[in-house]
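User: Round two. Same drill as before: sequence, then structure, for each protein.

Assistant: Same drill it is. First protein:
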Amino acid sequence: MAKSATSQLLFHSSDWNFKTLSRAYDGIETIALDELGLNVYPNQLEIISAEQMLDAYSSVGMPLMYQHWSFGKRFVFEEHHYRKGHHGLAYELVINSNPCITYLMEGNTMAMQTLVTAHASFGHNHFFKNNYLFRQWTDANAILSYMEFSKKYIAKCEERHGTSAVEAILDSAHALMEQGVFRSRRPPRLSSKKEQERARERLEYEEQTYSDLWRTLPRSAERPNPEEAEREALERKKVLNLPEENLLYFLEKNSLILEPWQRELLRIVRVIAQYFYPQRQTKVMNEGCATFVHYTIINRLFDQGKISEGAILEMLHSHSSVVFQPTFDDPRYSGINPYALGFAMMQEIERICNNPTSEDRDWFPHIAGSGQWRETLLDAWANHRDESFILQYLSPALIRKFRLFLLTDQRNEKYCEVAAIHNERGYRAVRAALAKSYDIGANQPDVQVVDVDLLGDRQLRLRHNIKNGILLEEKERDATLQHVRHLWGYDVSLVGIDAETGKVRYECATA
């Protein structure tokens, strides 16, 4: 019996080879697809070294990334801290692509390779393929070919126009990446290879046929009356589709000084920014999904006798480290751990569906005692982001477990006020406040292009819609405006308007 049980193990030691990796993958896949009902892209596993992982860190986790000095600076920083032992490296890295590429560290033990394969190749993979934000805002089928094109294109631009000229555009584009995404409407899909080739031909044609003579035409000295000026302003705003929230998109399409190759660099940067936008909105859900999936799979493998006690203890030790939530007075505390919160909420959903309390039945009547925890989780993973997930599924029991309460801190008051405690009204207030803290739209500056007279002074007018009285840091604001001016070529002004009162809080412009 002992010999038979041992022979069922997927691996017998910490050493691994591609045969044991394949055997472990098959065991994981059976549970993930047949028992959990996951729907994943085809998987591609790659083994990388520590230096390759550091390189991936420095280039925002993307393979085939173009070269830029900021990536090299980040690489030196990460390598220094890694060599000094200040921090370790991730056990894996996963790419939202089709096929889904998972990079495994060559130094991992076989137990860790099993854990991270379940975590990344099935947990993250399922979330990438099925969550509505990734389906709506990214194209997993095209991202790798697009990154390959962008790397070659930027290298070609450096050869043709010089490294300094290319870096100057990329520096300004990187400074505007957070303002280079579509938030309220679907972005254009990535081009196919054929469409990309047509775009290259069009850019080359524009370069060959461009004429600068139009700028020498004399301007009319007549000034329109106020009513006519207002009509013209409304008309040009309509033509330019203003206001526009995506600054990089507007500059790419409308800047009067950028050459075709420079416009393409802006497009490359904003496509990458758009690719990462859903990940910023689903950090808790994405990591919670992957952690819940790997935890469920490794326990099922142990129950089936396919991994040993020593292996699962190693896995659970790593799992516990990942979901550890330091207390507020712990030196390691840096906020709420997204792994801890996401995993705990998904465990709560399983508990509520299987073993609800009377409190659970009051708060979650649609799922309490249904026994359909798989279906509930699959639906949540597909149809929610962090904000809506927390707002709908954070339970009073979990609020008590995490010891959450709500403080209000008014600038003109001497003391903080405890605004919500552990009662029914307090639970709702805590849940709403925590959900709002994960709303990117509420926590990032809302800066939009609102007007520009292309036939007049050509000054680009931006508006900052101030929320909750939070102003932009002056030094960073002015530096960013200079990057906008660099790409626009003319003066840029910014006005800060309070979103609640409509009052102007500040005005500034480039020199």
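Second protein:
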Amino acid sequence: MGDLAKIFKAYDVRGVVPDELDEETAEAIGAAFAEVTGAETAVVAHDMRESSVPLAEAFTRGATSRGADVINAGLGSTDLLYYASGSLGLPGVMFTASHNPARYNGMKMCRAGAVPIGGATGLVEIRDRAAAILASGTLGGEGGGSVSERDLLRGYADHLRTLVDLSGIRPLRVVVDAGNGMGGHTVPTVFEGLPVELTALYFELDGTFPNHEANPIEPDNLRDLQKAVLDVGADIGLAFDGDADRCWVVDERGESVSPSTITALVAVRELGRHPGAAIIHNLITSRGVPEIVAEHGGRPIRTRVGHSFIKAEMAETGAVFGGEHSAHYYFKDFWFADSGMLAALHVLAALGEQERPLSDILTEYTRYAASGEINSTVADQGAATERVREIFAARDGVTFDELDGLTVSGPGWWFNLRPSNTEPLLRLNAEAADEIQMAAIRDEVLAVVRS
């Protein structure tokens, strides 16, 4: 039995198997999920990790012991689980640890319609109820819930294809690096019938990740994709993370494309369908995103970092699209949930609708030089942040806000310093009008933080 307080995070459940998350714990969480949500039926999917099937089966035993029926969707990406929850109108659970190493696993939970379950929306109650079940020894029982199986991959692929018009695109050479994750399962079906010459990297499902981590936000994990794009003369490269809910783009030159640039591109496309709509961007996406949204008649709305904040803000404002620096992309037409695959289809459509290379198209959506996210190990995050504030407070034309961490803005530049919720880290993102100014701000802040 694991320590539930350790594995229940702000947005999901995640821990080392079996030391922190074992089958008994998963079964208790399944029972608690059924009790807290009141689910009469729930849908369950899992990724390719060796521990995913046993944990999903244990969860199912727990849920059915409380009288809930379970639809087993089998192998799937996280956005396939959101499709299942949205299209079937059922709460759901995805077994995955996303990009974490092989020894980890976890659960992402949602209510019917893919509404996320986080710390403030039921996850704490599920944790506490599971702990009570384990402590009281009330696992098991004959609740009478049934288990059925349903293959939702084709329905998922067909639904995504209704949301993006790819009917007129030119033939494209596309390299996809699935990182031995769930993109290897979903991409072939989603791309079926498209005028795409596909070069597949690491499509074999393997939860040990034998080639590289399935985490495209780390530059080292893009090397194979970048090389393959150049080797085959591809028009574009796409990299998915382990559960394939994030997608990273590489242009025809093998250059990594900022998710802020993709956010701006997809936002403009969505505004073409929904004039004047709201677009969500988190506070560390490029300042170019709200500028471009406003120029195209949209209403940019700034939020904190984190999918629960973005999804809540989208639901409240009716925003049609939202983007994060981490390559999560959220769509109103997809139950306000995130789908890296849907974002990828938008980029393929934008590229295939014209003859220009991707790098040329994307110049319209790129305005500033950005540092990317830089982590520093800091024992006292608050004290380090205060030192930075004091230095910049003495300068003219500088403003501060604390929506999420500390954001400092000056003439032609800004940076955000945010503490990690789980580690002794400070995360820095800086942006400026040009590379020289950005590097100067970045290096100055890092010198203070690390002093």
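The chain has 15 helices and 23 strands.

User: Perfect.
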